[in-house]
Amino acid sequence: MVNKSLQDSSLPLWPEAAQTLLALMHAQGEVARLSEREQLFSALLVSVNAVLWAFDWESRRVLYVSPAYERIFGRSAGLLLSDYNHWRDSIYPDDLDYAERSLAEVLVKGAVEDREYRIIAADGQVRWLSDKCFINRQAEPGQPVIIVGIAEDITDKKQMETELQRLATTDVLTQSSNRRHFFECAHREFQQARHQGTPLAFLLLDIDDFKVINDSYGHQEGDNVLQRIAESGRAALRRGDVFGRVGGEEFAAVFPGCAPDMAMQVAERLQREIQRLSFSHGDQTFGITVSQGLTSLTAEDESVDSLFARADAAMYKAKHQGKNRIICG
């Protein structure tokens, strides 16, 4: 039999013990939930392929950087947290001034979301980052100014943009500028020459008897001729000259800052390069010639179209005078 006095004396203690036990169980549950949240948050940070960071503006100290930093930059997060200059040193030299100026703009704008710059990873690879940053506007006066940001690796996107731009502006067969891109560049050079009062020359080139080449040796050999002409153009023209394929067997060039006598020297050099070309088809070999029309900017020219028209007329004049020559118009 249980001692009644002992049983009676212990009764008041049961509610308190139960409450304490329930409190402990609740606390353990909260700890478990917090631990689960922390593990989930850590797992998310590891899986996100972007660098989350926090920066103390006054002390120039990186307060936090997510695990993706070491994957993208290939550098130690610990070294960055100890010295902000590790971030600066990783930025591509040509982009450093912009990266620092755009970071400072967040102090005025509150947020800067269009920052794009390059970094040099530890393996020497150049990567593009899109680095958005925001200022902590909730900080009370006297509190540190904290900038937070997210830096995403957009290297693949940039490479795709570059390739799309190349495809949009390049003649696929000859790897020269296509007609649209050539005339865009020619128009720009025309406007600049007009504005600066500098000379400009325009050249139009057509392969002589190109149809005979296609008919005699096939279109594959004709494509080879076009490719070799483009190579000759790149070899003979000066740095800064614009060269492109503007028709089936027609190429054109613009010579910025080139006086008429110098333009003729460039055209003659191109003519010689093309005359040296030799082609083989089975047991046959053959060469090619071109007819060129050359003209220069005058005070009366209002657009690049007038130069193109004169060069075109001069080129056909070269055809009618026996081909394989340069005529000035």
TrEMBL record:
InterPro entries recorded: DGC-Regulatory_Protein (IPR052163), GGDEF_dom (IPR000160), Nucleotide_cyclase (IPR029787), PAC (IPR001610), PAS (IPR000014), PAS-assoc_C (IPR000700), PAS-like_dom_sf (IPR035965), PAS_fold_3 (IPR013655)
SMART domains referenced in this protein's UniProt entry, alphabetically: GGDEF (SM00267), PAC (SM00086), PAS (SM00091)
GGDEF domain boundaries: 198-329
Principal subcellular localization: membrane
Entry-linked SUPFAM superfamilies: Nucleotide cyclase, PYP-like sensor domain (PAS domain)
Residue stretches making up the PAS domain: 37-110
Domain PAC: 113-166
GO MF term list: catalytic activity
Compartments, as annotated in UniProt: Cell inner membrane
GO cellular component: plasma membrane
CDD domains membership: GGDEF, PAS
Recorded superkingdom: Bacteria
Cofactor(s) recorded in Swiss-Prot or TrEMBL: Mg(2+)
Gene3D superfamilies: 3.30.70.270, PAS domain
PANTHER family from the UniProt entry: DIGUANYLATE CYCLASE DGCT-RELATED
Identification of the protein by name: Diguanylate cyclase
Source organism of the structure: Pseudomonas mandelii
